[in-house]
User: Fold these one by one.
Assistant:
Number 1:
Amino acid sequence: MRKIDLELVVGLFVLIGVFSLAYLSVRFGKLETISGGSYAVYAEFENAGGIKEGTIVEIAGIEIGKVKSLSLSKDYRALLMISIKKNIPIQEDAIASIKTKGLIGEKYIQISPGASDKLIPDGGKITETESLIDIEELISRYIFGKVEEKK
């Protein structure tokens, strides 16, 4: 009788441990278990270097979504599918920019809201984008004398 009680207690302890680990993984890993609270918006960039799935999307320093997927468009530009929280409307004249955080250089997408009354619908596209400035390319152009002023 005592062996059955001991096995039952150990089994319950293991189950509690497994459920606790699963809860912590979802809670701290920021995994989405239900994706009903967001809508998709697309943005095209000349260069999406450093951006990957799960990259944070912010407005005014507040996280409003994440990059869900990356692919190439027909004209070989980076096409990003961004998942935005349902309660955050994005104006059709908003600007999406790739920015860098901190010293390590973690990349994120910064959306600057527009002034338009029209909103981007689910599956719509942000037309104004700014790619990250490639410092290595600028230094290379400067060293080899190929720096040109844009007019």
Number 2:
Amino acid sequence: MAKRKDVIVIAGPSGSGETTFTNELMLAYPNFVRAVTATTRPPRTGEKDGVDYYFFDMERFFEEVQNGNIQEHTYVRSRDAHYGGYIPDLEDKLNAGKTVIINTERSGAEYYKKNYGATTIFIKPKSLDVLRDRIIRRDSHITDLEVDKRMLQAMQEIVDAQGSYDYVVFNTDGEFAETVLSVIDILKREGYKVA
């Protein structure tokens, strides 16, 4: 298992900014890397296996679960796909001395807190209207039905997050830099190597 303070969970509903926060932290701190998780959804245009996700078919995904390589996973109904942490990727990065950021949901956050001593941070949009706008801005071809599905999923994640994370940080439009600094302050207080 990892030394304490080598794993960070940054979670949030689709459109909340958790991926952007992860990318900003990796730009600012070269020792920070993102865990590449596994999924059963097909790759989108430009996505690469082993870089964006490990893209497994259903059979391979559950073989990896059975072999202990995926110890936490969830089914996202709005995307009709399974997602799970891929332990070989995580352990390789930890063994290389990296601080690993994991984007996951509540059960994943609980797993990494219990097994890796992770600090868990939930990125929450200031309002659901802002979240809806972000989802639409990210994908101009998204259908109204898909937006509604993602909004329902997001609302459930926000409800589930209450009391489940160490910190909840609001990602307010126009205040991104300040919000990143507040996340960095949290990491400093929690004992991560943030230099």
Number 3:
Amino acid sequence: MKTETISREKRMNPRDTDGLEPPVPAHRPGILVADDDEGIRYLISTVLTSAGFDVNAASDGQQAWEALLHVHYDLLVTDNEMPRLPGIKLIERIREEGMSLPVIIASGTFPGERVRNDPQLQIAAVLPKPFDIGKLLDSVRQALQACCGDTTSDQGTSRRLDASPTLIR
């Protein structure tokens, strides 16, 4: 089977009618954002969606846990201080179940030494709030690269910042 190489311009123009099949979309990594602060949750979700990721959001650790049981995600970005199930407990539960997805903690409060030194938790990055958006994006890309290979696209820079992430209800 011969594979045809199509230039980027050709792939990006949906009006071309030269008989070529439309390209199969590249895998967009799925990210679950768990934070009880609606503003922070919206900010993180919107930034990640704008960068080209598929993002769902949960308003607490229990809601995130339930989502993880039903949907495959490539990464979890979680706060620590949340009702019903704190971030650290959520991560412990994830690891107890044998889930290997990378986790980034973005929180104003967390047990620092435990988070950094507990190999069982397998934390990809810790971002103390307030954090820089560039640092968040770098941490997300590094975590995904480490676990999944090159899964990010360069489309993110041209995406609108008002893209809407999916809120899990």
